[in-house]
Amino acid sequence: MAADDHFSLFGLPARFDLDVQALERAWRTVAAQVHPDRYATASPAERRVAMQWSARANEAYRQLRDPLLRARYLCEQAGIDLQTESNTAMDPAFLMQQMEWREMLDDARRDASGFSVLEQELEQARRQMRGTLAKLLDERQDYAMAGAKVREWMFVEKLAQELAAARPAG
User: pTM to 2 decimals?
Assistant: First the structure.
């Protein structure tokens, strides 16, 4: 079994707008072929290789089924260094939106009715980012701009995690 990247491992086109059902079917097929149980009576070297392929298939599936991780993977495959730890440059409009969302989160901590409003805004931002990334990656192949959008989406996910942690139980 040979595959240069996650998409070819599953016989799928390298696209952001991916048929997730086809991914699921392809993953199940590959996983069944390389499952370590199929190699229980094989040599230790064959068992080790099967284990490595199984781990690779599972990691590839994990990355491709998540739209944000898939976008990140596509950018990285195109040679874009996302510099997630050091590159904080973002569109000024998005920076303003960040500040507004942070204020909404602070307000929601004082008045729980704000949680659902912020959740809805973040979900809308995710939908918009998915659409934008589909255009940037699949239509324009503008990986540099897509990388900037991926960093923005990562901020949205981090804020969503903070929101979930701050939400009162019950």
Answer: 0.90
DSSP letter assigned to residue 78: T
Task: Name residue 94's amino acid.
Answer: F
Count other C-beta atoms under 10 Å from residue 31's C-beta: 14
| pLDDT for position 99 | 96
N residues, the chain:
170
Identify which of 156, 150, 22 has the alpha carbon closest to the alpha carbon of residue 77: 150
In this structure, are residues 125 and 156 in contact, taking their beta carbons and an 8 Å threshold? yes
Evaluate the CA torsion angle 119, 146, 132, 61 in order and state its sign: negative
pLDDT tops 60 at residue 1: no
Q: What percent of the chain has pLDDT over 70?
A: 98
Helices (H) and strands (E) in the chain — how many of each? 7, 0
* In 1-152, beta strands by DSSP E: none
- pLDDT score for 4: 82
Rg (CA), the chain: 20
Q: How far apart are CA 84 and CA 10, in angstroms?
A: 28
